[in-house]
């Protein structure tokens, strides 16, 4: 007997575009960019094909872990305006397909890195994937307002992995690159969280502004921004780069502090449009792009003999 089955997500056609969206391509541009810079700025040489393979593996691993994040958070995403139209809450894809795609991308990325580049870089990539998809997404994010501080470490791995793919060992410079992104993440995210906090409150995610209030969040943004500045400049004063990177890092970091000041001193009631927070969030992205680009420019200048 023919039945009229209700239209479920299982019967809806899935578009390739949605698989791509699951990898959070916009956020990943900066993740992948920092990985590319890690490869290019590392001392030593790598065959271009291998360099490309390392970057491809990091991109696949980052994308794969983002897919697993979206798979796990489908119900949470359905409750927030910013995320409700993602492929899973939007009902355009089956949950199992997202899960399998995430596992596939992650597994291939680690295997590719191990076979083509080396198992230290592959182990770091595996650690980063577990960090983002399991430690941050499944464990910390729904439990603690410090989720961003601890979990944000996942996003700090890509330049470290890129560097290690070239050199094969972990030295002070790649650790500093890790630390830069680690200390950058709280101001990056909390500035955003200040103007989308009602959304997080609705779905019960304990983001700092929701749990501890705006005043604490604003102070934490300021503290992390002040800690970030010397760490961002450190590659220069430990002698890992020249004044080219050093001066860019100083200018960018001073501007970061300047833009964090009004976020620190104001309260929401005073600024309806939340302009200083939006500005700081946008600037955080420019900051990291330009800082890592300066690292590569510095290395190119050294290779060309333009600087001593
Ligand atoms: C736990 C850490 C982080 C959290 C919670 C976080 C959260 C967010 C959120 C919610 C957005 C808003 C837009 C969107 O949903 O696409 C965003 C945007 C963005 N994030 Fe992050 N982020 C984190 C770490 C990072 C890292 C490590 C990077 C790169 C190194 C990064 C790069 C970006 C970029 C480039 C955008 C702008 C995307 C666009 O133009 O739409 N984020 N972030
Ligand atoms: C190599 C490798 C595995 C790199 C991982 C890269 C990484 C951890 C990036 C984190 C950036 C990111 C997408 C945060 C979104 O937070 P969220 O997921 O809480 O944001 P949402 O609310 O938009 O889902």
- Gyration radius (Cα, Å) is 21 Å
| CATH hierarchy, class of the largest domain | Mainly Alpha
Strand content bin: under 5%
The tally of beta strands, per DSSP, is: 0
Mean pLDDT: 91
Question: Bound compounds, please?
Answer: protoporphyrin IX containing FE, farnesyl diphosphate
Termini Cα gap: 83 Å
The CATH topology of the largest domain comes to Tetracycline Repressor, domain 2
Number of helices: 13
Q: Which residues sit in consecutive blocks of at least 5 with pLDDT less than 50? A: 1-9
Helix content: over 70%
Whole-number count of domains: 2
Which structural category do the helix and sheet elements fall into?
mainly alpha
Order of helices and strands: HHHHHHHHHHHHH
CATH architecture tag of the largest domain: Orthogonal Bundle
What profile does the largest beta sheet have? none
Name the overall outline. flat
């Amino acid at each position: 007997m023919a039945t009229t089955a209700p239209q479920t997500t299982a019967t809806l056609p899935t578009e390739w575009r949605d698989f791509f969206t699951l990898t959070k391509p916009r956020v990943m541009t900066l993740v992948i960019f920092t990985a590319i810079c890690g490869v290019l700025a590392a001392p030593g040489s790598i065959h271009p094909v291998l360099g490309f393979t390392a970057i491809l593996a990091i991109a696949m691993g980052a994308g794969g872990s983002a897919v697993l994040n979206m798979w796990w958070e489908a119900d949470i995403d359905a409750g927030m305006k910013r995320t409700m139209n993602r492929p899973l809450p939007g009902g355009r894809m089956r949950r199992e397909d997202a899960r399998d795609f995430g596992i596939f991308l992650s597994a291939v990325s680690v295997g590719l890195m191990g076979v083509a580049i080396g198992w230290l870089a592959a182990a770091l990539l595996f650690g980063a994937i577990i960090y983002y998809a399991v430690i941050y997404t499944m464990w910390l994010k729904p439990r603690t307002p410090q989720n961003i501080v601890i979990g944000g470490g996942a996003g700090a791995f890509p330049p470290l992995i890129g560097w290690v793919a070239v050199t094969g060992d972990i030295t002070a410079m790649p650790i500093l690159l890790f630390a830069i992104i680690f200390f950058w993440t709280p101001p990056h995210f909390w500035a955003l969280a200040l103007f989308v906090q009602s959304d997080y409150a609705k779905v019960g995610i304990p983001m700092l502004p929701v749990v501890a209030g705006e005043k604490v969040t604003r102070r934490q943004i300021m503290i992390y921004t002040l800690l970030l500045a010397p760490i961002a400049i450190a590659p220069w004063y430990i002698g890992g780069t020249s004044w080219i990177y050093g001066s860019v890092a100083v200018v960018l970091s001073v501007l970061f502090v300047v833009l964090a000041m009004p976020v620190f001193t104001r309260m929401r009631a005073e600024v309806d449009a939340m302009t200083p927070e939006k500005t700081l969030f946008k600037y955080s992205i420019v900051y990291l792009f330009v800082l890592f680009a300066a690292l590569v420019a510095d290395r190119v200048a050294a290779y060309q003999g333009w600087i001593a």
